[in-house]
């Protein structure tokens, strides 16, 4: 991979366990058993965001749909990573923030960030 990121996909975690990143080893663990399957890509992209944004932590960083600090930056990176998949072959008149948020189970408090990402990707 371009960014030297490793990942582990596992179905052996509790359905409430979110994805996590170890920024030192540049490894992401993704729980494919997560209760809302639509959100798995968002969690994975969020954790990629921590690594490509250069975040450092002595402990694992867990997916948090926060609107502050490094978590917000990771969320914005995640939205930017996911937007091309949503926008692919979609005419402009069908681009809709609600359907994007539904597709990836984006939390409502990230609506402004989702709108900015979607409508600036022209």
From TrEMBL:
<feature type="domain" description="IrrE N-terminal-like">
    <location>
        <begin position="23"/>
        <end position="86"/>
    </location>
</feature>
<dbReference type="InterPro" id="IPR010359">
    <property type="entry name" value="IrrE_HExxH"/>
</dbReference>
<protein>
    <recommendedName>
        <fullName>IrrE N-terminal-like domain-containing protein</fullName>
    </recommendedName>
</protein>
<dbReference type="Pfam" id="PF06114">
    <property type="entry name" value="Peptidase_M78"/>
</dbReference>
């Amino acid at each position: 991979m371009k960014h030297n990121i490793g990942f582990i996909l596992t179905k052996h975690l509790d359905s409430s366990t979110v994805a996590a990143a170890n920024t030192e080893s540049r490894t992401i663990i993704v729980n494919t058993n997560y209760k809302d399957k639509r959100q798995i890509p968002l969690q994975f992209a969020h954790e990629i965001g921590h690594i490509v944004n250069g975040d450092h932590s002595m402990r694992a960083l867990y997916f948090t749909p926060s609107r502050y600090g490094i978590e917000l930056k990771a969320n914005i990176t995640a939205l930017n990573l996911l937007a091309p998949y949503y926008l692919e072959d979609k005419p402009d008149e069908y681009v809709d923030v609600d359907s994007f948020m539904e597709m990836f189970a984006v939390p409502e408090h990230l609506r402004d960030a989702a709108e900015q990402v979607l409508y600036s990707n022209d």
